[in-house]
């Protein structure tokens, strides 16, 4: 990745003077930073980070010299990309951001399938949840950048990511530049002008994809995971990201995709002179390749080991660009959710109880069984993710009977941990205790919005993967209420800021108040709390 990033930066970013001094922590900064750099690594679980942290020598190693919270929680049950990203720079749980899943059902939506994507405007004519118009419409709360702009309109807000939902949920409603990888190139909202640095990035990435990619060299520390495992019809675990010329799908699920995102971010920082204006600027960066790699290959083979090594090197190169600007910048890095390795490899590694979800739990099977039991003409159920919705065309009394039957049938399945009705979830107060102590109902409550969530939430038991049959690009997943999907790392670094590690739990909703306090930005009424990033007597939550 270092060579990939360097090659892209040579085209995208302007040359800068060499950095003569390695950043060191000498004394706590007394003034606010000029640039906030918020990074999300999609699917970077706390377990995955812990597995490789001793091998990091680049960007991750730098961040590990800062304030380290290895057990941060995306506390909610809906551990998916869109809900997770909606917490990072808002300070709110999904119950209040309105982003309850990647996709939900809106039975009033003007489309046949009634499915709504979290980052779309479903009112666009002719759209559906797969062919949509990207939008921030569904995000109900402001982001850090929006709050800054409200106080200091000169602040610039930039968001770049490998997924539209990551860029939109972290950038918010008022962004100066917003770009994401759409599968073929970097895109934004219709009608936006294309800055020269974005076009340079597009051209450089297109040239990279047009060339075949040779297998990457495998670091020595990856040798223990260099073992083939049959997962469905595929044999995975020994891949090295070789790629045929023009293969955009393989590019997306490779370290090169993160290099492209970081290159564009570096170029935008330079061209827009972020951090060098009269106000504090914010750039959010969504590194999405880890998620695509995890879904495609699992987390336990050479593919993920290489990704960790390459991302570490790419982050180092990105930070070097920032160092050479001379800007005082604050970095925050976390993840939107964790993940669980592929069932077949888990079974090989001392976990014989691992299972894939049984066909009896499919929407089609449940719908047919309930319709037959109640002597109704189906379908009577709709579903998205773990949420089950009762068809609103049914009379109220019939809907109540269907809901009762659905709860009973789902609860009776051996792979189901709980099936909670919307009424049960809504009656549960939002939790305020440490996130590892939350009950399943409390985890569900943290991502429940009565206007968007289902009539019934079905939660699978631990170590049951919600993929019945693995296939190309989809062998493992996340989305469960269990800690392997909820726990993520949370790292803060700023030049001069003393480092420390706090093993006790914190939450991703704590990020906004932690970044806002040194800026003098007051954010009352949010779900998170400010984390004091100074290990001594000073308090970054109460700046001078």
Structure report:
It is a single chain. With 544 residues, this protein is α/β, with parallel strands linked by helices. It contains 19 helices and 20 strands. The protein has helices at 2-12, 46-52, 59-63, 81-88, 94-97, 144-151, 164-171, 196-210, 248-252, 255-271, 289-297, 302-325, 343-348, 363-373, 396-411, 422-426, 440-445, 483-486, 511-516; strands spanning 35-41, 67-73, 103-105, 115-117, 157-161, 177-181, 186-187, 229-231, 234-236, 281-287, 329-334, 355-356, 381-384, 387-390, 416-421, 456-460, 464-465, 487-494, 500-501, 506-507. The strands form five sheets. Strands 1, 2, 5, 6, 7, 10, 11, 18, 19 and 20 form a ten-stranded mixed sheet that branches. Helix 4 (81-88) runs parallel beside helix 7 and helix 11 (289-297) packs antiparallel against helix 12. The longest helix has 24 residues, at 302-325. The protein is globular, with a radius of gyration of 23 Å. The two termini are 41 Å apart.
Question: What is the structure about, briefly put?
Answer:
The protein has 544 residues and is of the alpha/beta class. It contains 19 helices and 20 strands. Strand 6 (177-181) and strand 7 form a beta hairpin.
């Amino acid at each position: 990745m270092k060579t990939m990033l360097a090659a892209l930066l040579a085209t995208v970013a302007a040359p800068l003077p060499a950095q003569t001094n390695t950043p060191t922590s000498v004394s706590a900064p007394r003034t606010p930073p000029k640039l906030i750099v918020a990074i999300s690594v999609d699917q970077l679980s706390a377990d995955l980070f812990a597995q490789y942290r001793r091998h990091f020598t680049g960007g991750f190693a730098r961040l590990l010299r800062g304030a380290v919270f290895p057990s941060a929680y995306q506390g909610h049950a809906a551990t998916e990309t869109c809900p997770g990203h909606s917490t990072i720079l808002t300070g709110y749980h999904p119950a209040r951001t309105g982003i309850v899943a990647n996709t939900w059902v809106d039975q009033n939506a003007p489309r046949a399938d009634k499915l709504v994507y979290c980052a779309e405007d479903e009112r666009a004519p002719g759209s559906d949840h797969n062919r949509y118009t990207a939008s921030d419409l569904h995000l109900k709360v402001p982001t850090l950048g929006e709050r800054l702009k409200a106080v200091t309109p000169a602040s610039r807000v930039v968001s770049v990511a490998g997924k539209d939902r990551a860029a939109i949920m972290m950038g918010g409603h008022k962004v100066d530049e917003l770009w994401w990888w759409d599968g073929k190139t970097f895109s934004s909202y219709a009608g936006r002008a294309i800055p020269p640095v974005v076009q340079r990035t597009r051209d450089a990435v297109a040239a990279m994809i047009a060339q075949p990619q040779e297998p990457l060299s495998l670091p020595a520390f990856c040798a223990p995971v260099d073992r083939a495992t049959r997962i469905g019809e595929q044999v995975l675990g020994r891949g090295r990201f070789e790629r045929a010329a023009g293969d955009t799908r393989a590019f997306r699920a490779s370290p090169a995709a993160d290099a492209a995102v970081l290159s564009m971010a570096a170029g935008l920082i330079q061209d827009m002179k972020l951090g060098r204006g009269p106000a504090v600027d914010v750039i959010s960066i969504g590194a999405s390749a880890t998620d695509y790699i995890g879904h495609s290959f699992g987390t336990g083979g050479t593919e993920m080991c290489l990704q960790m090594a390459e991302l570490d090197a790419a982050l180092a190169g990105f930070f070097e660009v920032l160092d050479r600007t001379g800007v005082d910048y604050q970095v925050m890095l976390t993840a939107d959710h964790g993940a669980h390795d592929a069932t077949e490899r888990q079974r090989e590694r001392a976990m014989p109880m691992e299972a894939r979800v049984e066909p009896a739990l499919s929407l089609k099977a449940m719908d047919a069984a309930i319709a037959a039991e109640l002597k109704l003409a189906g379908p009577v159920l709709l579903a998205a993710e773990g949420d089950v919705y009762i068809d609103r065309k049914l009379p109220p009394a019939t809907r109540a009977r269907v809901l009762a039957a659905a709860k009973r049938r789902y609860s009776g399945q051996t792979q189901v941990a709980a099936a909670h009705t919307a009424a049960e979830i809504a009656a549960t107060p939002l939790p305020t205790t440490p996130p590892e102590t939350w009950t399943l109902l409390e985890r569900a409550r943290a991502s429940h919005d009565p206007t968007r969530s289902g009539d019934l939430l079905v939660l699978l038991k631990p170590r049951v993967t919600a993929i019945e049959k693995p296939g190309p690009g989809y062998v493992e997943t996340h989305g469960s209420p269990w800690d392997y999907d909820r726990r993520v790392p949370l790292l803060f670094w700023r030049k001069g800021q003393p480092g420390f590690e706090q093993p006790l739990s914190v939450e991703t909703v704590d990020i906004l108040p932690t970044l806002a306090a040194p800026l003098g930005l007051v954010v009352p009424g949010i779900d998170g709390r400010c984390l004091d990033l100074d290990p001594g007597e000073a308090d970054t939550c109460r700046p001078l």
